[in-house]
Amino acid sequence: MEFTSVPGVGEKTADALADLDGAETALRRGDVATLARASGLTEGRAAAIARGAIRERHDDPGGWLATDRAREVYENALGLLQERAVTDYAEKRLRTIYPSPTESRIEEVREWAAGAVECEPSDDVLDALSGVEQPSEPRGLRVRERALATADAERYAAVKDAFPELSVEVVEDARDLSELARSYATVVALDETFAGVDVEGDVRVITDPKNNPEEVVPERLLAFFAENRAELLAALEVHEAAGIEPAVDPAALRDALSRLDDDGTVRGDEELTRLANAVDDLDAAVSTAESVANDHLRDAIREQDVTIEGTDFLSLVEQGARVDSLLSRELADEYDAAIRKAREHLADALRLNESEAEFTGRIFAGDPTFPTEHNEEPLNRLRTELKTARDRRAVALKSELATDLAALRDPSADLVADALELDVELAVARFARDFDCVVPDIDDEGAGFDIEGGRSPLLDVPFAEAEPVDYAVSGVTLLSGVNSGGKTSTLDLVALIVTLAHMGLPVPAESARVGRVSELHYYAKSQGTLDAGAFESTLRDFGDLVSGAAGRLVLVDELESITEPGASAKIIAGILEALDEQGATGVFVSHLARQIREAAAVEVAVDGIEAVGLEDGELVVNRSPRKDHLARSTPELIVEKLAREAREDADGERGEPGSATTGSDATDATDTDAGGPAFYEGLLKKF
Ligand SMILES: Nc1ncnc2c1ncn2[C@@H]1O[C@H](COP(=O)(O)OP(=O)(O)OP(=O)(O)O)[C@@H](O)[C@H]1O
Predict the structure, then answer these.
(1) I want to staple 472 with a disulfide (CB 3.0 to 4.6 A). Which of 258, 344, 436, 450 is the partner?
(2) Is 487 in the pocket of ligand 1 (CB under 6 A)?
(3) Whose C-alpha lies nearest to ligand 1, atom 13?
(4) In whole angstroms, how far apart are CA 481 and each of 451, 588, 619?
(5) Which residue(s) pair with 585 in the sheet?
(6) Residues near 542 by beta carbon (within 8 Å), at least 6 away in sequence
(7) Which of 255, 186, 247 minimizes the C-alpha distance to 225?
């Protein structure tokens, strides 16, 4: 596959992907976790690349979210999903779910989501997920006791890159190799020519090191498992808690991990422990062995009656002869016993095997002396012997465990990937449950929508207090209504539901039908009148918007605030006409619905969010817009209220409740009162 054909992938990233096992499948599956393993790719970049690959695969032109506000609604929806993800990975992976106009892409996610919403987000699973992370590759690992050797300069360069953990040395011949073997516990020769060469030391020939990394540097694999132990075990727990079959045999993984120490060494091998302890305790054990011998000799001397013949005494006194000569003659047996005790102590304390124990005979040997001392040279030989045995044992064990772990490496990566993927599914499942979602119907009947019982989780009130909204639109419509009636919130709800539907996800409604939309253009309310330049550029935007608008959904909130009301009404009317001609669908929230309708050359539908009463001084609103209904605005409602009150007052003064204009006196009385019913009635007529 040509990775550079993926939108957003340059040469460097393409190279990194080419080096990554399974990159193609990962791109196909939107598997951000695997992509993020490519060198130099962050999870964020990996998600962007995964999105690019999805777009390419589905022939998706991109740009569905056509305005800032549309993008904001998507980000908010994504935020709600991401809040329900436990892992960092799932947060990133959710970004690969984006609104698309392409049927095949929407269908793909819908199928996946149908399975996802069935997942049970139990506390146990969520708890276990909190411990799961993308496995990290061990970094900065150095193995000092092993070297690679080659006579080939090209091979030298290649393995130096492939095995940064080891020293790589150039050797000319067997002599060089044998010299190297003296400096390292193990030397791995990489050239065929060294096969069968007899060299002292631990020298192996591995001609294809890249295919045998666990043999060449088992530490790499061990470090991977040691460093990711907690994440792997957590991923196993996730599977167990969720009742899902894991990609790896749990018993084999647990067993292998139990044999591995946190520092990547093999744990629990008695022989290795014995050898390691022997090396560590060697000096202390020798000094104790000396004490044992000397204590024995001291006691023996103390209890011995020594008869010194005159000649001996003379030679001691005159010739400076040493008392040792006496010792050897008088206490030969005791000395032998003391030396034996020292040797035995050393062998026992260090748990030396037979061949190692032979060294003790040379460590404690020689002419009798008191106090007796060990011999340094054989002691050092024993030390070297023990160290070499320890290192060889360690490497052998590492290789053995690494061979077991090699078989578990890929399944373990899958195990974690599956757990992380489950987190993505659970985030969708929790979203769908928390917001009482339903799978929307999507059709190709134009960009209209029909929502029943839609409740927006983006409202500034708790979701439980969100009142359900029914709203259906096809074609171009004005949405009128009282202040704070919920017009903006209705646009938000429509934008959210249409966006989620095009992401392939369930939507927060009792039922929803959504026409396939090519682009969502949602314009938020402008913050006040624009200056000439900004106004011009906004008009240009709308000029672009209305050309080629078929299939677009256009949501616009109070566009009138960009300039003075008279001009605004005419401009909005013009935009509506153009959109209508294009066959686009649009909802324009406006307080100027009447004026716009009058200014428009085509029939413009007007819906309204109306007040149904007053409760404790607050308007009670029916949140579902009434179709083909110009709702009274708040000023109109207030004038109406004042007119009614003035009428009632006037009636009260005349003692004729319920009758506003009975008799000429009453009419005269109100007409002379500037704030009386006639004034308000007059105002009301102007609406
Ligand atoms: N469906 C709903 N359920 C519960 N509360 C709602 C709903 N819709 C709106 N609200 C509440 O009403 C408030 C005002 O809503 P919104 O801003 O959408 O009204 P508006 O008609 O656009 O107001 P304005 O005309 O002032 O722009 C919201 O902040 C929210 O608290």
Answers:
(1) 450
(2) yes
(3) 484
(4) 19, 12, 12
(5) 553
(6) 571, 575
(7) 255
For residue 24, the SS3 value is helix
How far apart CA 349 and CA 274 sit, in angstroms, is 10
What string of H, E and C letters represents the secondary structure of 173-187?
Answer: CHHHHHHHHHHCCEE
Residue 56's CB is within 10 A of a number of other CB atoms, namely: 16
Amino acid, single-letter form, for residue 474? S
For the stretch 505-538, pLDDT in tens is: 999 999 999 999 999 999 999 877 778 888 888 8
* Domains, in order of start, for the chain: 1-57 (1.10.150), 146-264+407-416 (no CATH), 270-390 (no CATH), 441-628 (3.40.50.300), 635-686 (no CATH)
User: Is 341 within any annotated ligand binding site?
Assistant: no
CA distance 152 to 260: 36
| C-beta of 515 in contact with ligand 1 (< 6 A) | no
Please identify, by atom number, the ligand 1 atom nearest to the C-alpha of residue 483.
25
What is this structure's pTM?
Answer: 0.80
Cα(162) to centroid of ligand 1, in Å? Answer: 62
Residue environment code for 476-505, b if the CB has 16+ CB neighbours within 10 A, otherwise e: bbbbbbbeebbbbbbbbbbbbbbbbbbbbb
The closest-lying atom of ligand 1 relative to the alpha carbon of residue 609 is 21
Using one digit for the tens of pLDDT, what is the confidence trace for 575-633?
A: 999 999 888 899 999 999 989 999 999 899 999 998 887 677 777 889 999 998 888 77
Helix (H) or strand (E) holding 93: helix 88-94
138 lines ligand 1 (CB under 6 A): no
The residue whose C-alpha atom lies closest to atom 7 belonging to ligand 1 is: 486
Q: Which residues pair with 189 in a beta bridge?
A: 149, 205
Cis bond leading into 371, ω under 30°?
yes
Q: Is 529 annotated as a binding residue?
A: no
Place of tokens 């490519």: 38
| 375-428 per-position pLDDT tens digit | 999 999 999 999 989 988 988 898 889 988 999 998 998 999 899 999 999 999
The answer to whether 488 is annotated as binding is: yes
H/E stretch holding 361 reads helix 354-363
User: What secondary structure does DSSP assign to 272-300, as a single string?
Assistant: HHHHHHHHHHHHHHHHHHHHHHHHHHHHH
486 is in an annotated binding site: yes
**With a cut of 0.90, is the ipTM above it?**
yes
Residue nearest to atom 4 of ligand 1 (CA): 466
Which amino acid residue places its CA nearest to atom 14 of ligand 1? Answer: 484
